[in-house]
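Office hours follow-up: a student asked to see two folded examples consecutively, so here they are.
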Amino acid sequence: MRRHLPLLLAAVAIPALACALAPQPAPDPAPTDAPPTPQPAETDPHGVKHITIQAGERVTSQNARCTMADVRTDDLASANDEAVPKGAWPSASLTADDRCGDDLETLAFRLLNCEREARDLPALRCDLRMVWLGRQHAADMRKYNFLSHTSHNGASPFARMKARSVRYRAAAENICQAPDVEQAHFVWMDSEGHRLNILSPEFTFAGVGVVQGKDGLLLTTDFYDPFPADAP
């Protein structure tokens, strides 16, 4: 059975750090030969809960079991790639190793899977389409100076997936603005809704898109589970 998250954005904010999550949509209908019916864009709920932490204080986590010391980093530097392929992406774009995007994105993805593996949950598989969707939305937030799941043109995360021909049985999104990847990870893990997305056995694929903003990194993680007929 699907889990439905509360219709209230949860956000944690310190200078250059704020995070929020999107509620999951109703499930897509089962696949048919007919083209999908365009869905109206969802709007973000107007209620946002903020927790403020004193300036200069580095975030620690009570719920994260993984830090950068627990994942492979010897093959990572700080390379950042913001490229997003044009057109539709109807088929999953899988990786042959444990990388998932550029160096920063791969670090964020490895931290997600470290948390799952620490709890005996199956690792998420990387679908680069989720990385590209994440980059697209993170760049949109940077360009138009906002932090929200609804893009500047009114599209929800689920509408953005459908616009790229990504079909899903279940989907969710986490977003964050943070000084670095590890700080974003800690805040996500200490927020119940974000943590549920990261640890949900309902999702099998994910990817993190990261862009450099004027006040730190902007990160968007998209999760999904495909219909059986669409599973790669």
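And the second, which I mentioned at the end of office hours:
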Amino acid sequence: MGGSGAGHFVKMIHNGIEYGAMQAYAEGFAIMKKKEEFDLNLPEIAEIWRFGSVIRFMAMDLISDGLNKNPELKDIAPYVSRFGRRTLDCRRSDCPRCCRTGNNFGSASKIKFKRKRFLFR
């Protein structure tokens, strides 16, 4: 894969991409839920998206299953608590290469900060 630290670096980027996808789906479903005049069937939409998208995202299976079991998502917190994995943080001493690429990883960083806001309410 690469030199020392390459696997960790690649995994951090992968996690950031997953966080971005999950955040985008969550925001999309929240917007659709608020458009009551369309009477959208969110479990049905999730099921269609599971198989009707070019991008296969295993989390959509979980989203579809969750919405089918609990369409109103009652008693489910609007955040994901920390689950033991490290988050992408370019200020960390173990991620200096990330900061030196000159590339913006804005969506993953924004999601990380949103998670922290919910965690420390």
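Two things to take away from it. Residues 6-34 form the longest helix (29 residues). The helical segments are 6-34, 42-51, 58-69, 96-99, 106-119.
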